[in-house]
Design a protein that fits this description.
Elements: E1 35-40, H1 44-47, H2 58-75, E2 80-84, H3 91-94, H4 97-101, E3 124-127, H5 139-145, E4 150-156, H6 158-171, E5 175-184, H7 188-201, E6 204-205, H8 208-220
Parallel strand pairs: 1-2, 1-4, 2-3, 4-5, 5-6
Helix pairs in contact: 6-7
């Protein structure tokens, strides 16, 4: 079978935000003194693959949900980190990604984060080179410097970069939270599969309103700062 070398056209599927919550093996709670919010690859190039005509489509739900979480995070002093792949990567930088996805992004304006979620002053922007947000970036070092050992993951695509980032973070003893309604994927089934794997292997799956409630409750309770392991 020939390798897939471009993004698929993604239909406007809908997702139950409680998907995979029953499969969680952890009872972790998001703490504003420990957390980092990751907005993963919400670039026009990736978001444009979705059919956005249905207002209730998962990609539209995700965009709105990420916006709310990012606003809350900034208000609470939680670092908001954006990843974005660069355009026109050299063959050496692109590496084996070319075998699966071809040339990738070009310098046509679609490398930018979508306007609805544009980074704000004080946010962190990382150049993304591989599926994991930790590969060839200083994300882990930034987290350690801020004594942060929780990562709340949002963005696209759930079963590729989001899940790979979650696995890598888990292996470095970072508590990972996957937010179903703040993510989107190639299909409903692949999205569900990523969440189920995360809940049973490396993360806590928690819908956005619960994340927000835990952050607000912890802020009111003035939680003790817990350093990274």
């Amino acid at each position: 079978m020939a390798a897939q070398r471009s993004l698929p056209a993604i239909g406007g599927y809908r997702l139950d935000p409680d998907t995979a919550a029953d499969a969680n093996r952890t009872d972790w709670t998001v703490d504003p003194a420990r957390a980092v919010l990751l907005v993963h690859d919400m670039q026009r190039y990736f978001v444009d693959a979705f059919d956005r005509t249905d207002p209730a489509a998962q990609i539209n739900v995700a965009v709105a949900t990420i916006g709310r979480l990012a606003s809350q995070a900034r208000a609470l002093g939680i670092p908001v980190v954006y990843t974005a792949q660069p355009p026109d990567q050299s063959p050496g930088d692109r590496g084996l990604l070319s075998d699966f996805w071809g040339h990738g992004l070009t310098d046509d304006g679609r490398q930018a984060i979508i306007p609805e979620l544009g980074p704000q002053p004080g946010d962190i922007e990382l150049t993304k080179w591989r599926y994991s947000a930790f590969t060839r970036t200083d994300l882990r070092e930034r987290m350690r410097a801020r004594r942060r050992d929780q990562l709340v993951i949002t963005g696209v695509y759930a079963h590729i970069g989001c899940l790979t980032t979650a696995i890598v973070a888990f292996m470095d003893d970072v508590q990972v939270f996957l937010v179903p309604d703040a993510m989107a994927d190639f299909s409903h089934d692949e999205h569900v599969s990523a969440l189920e794997y995360g809940a049973t292997r490396c993360a806590n799956v928690k819908r956005a309103d619960l994340v927000s409630a835990e952050l607000a409750a912890a802020e009111l309770g003035a939680p003790e700062v817990i350093g990274s392991r």
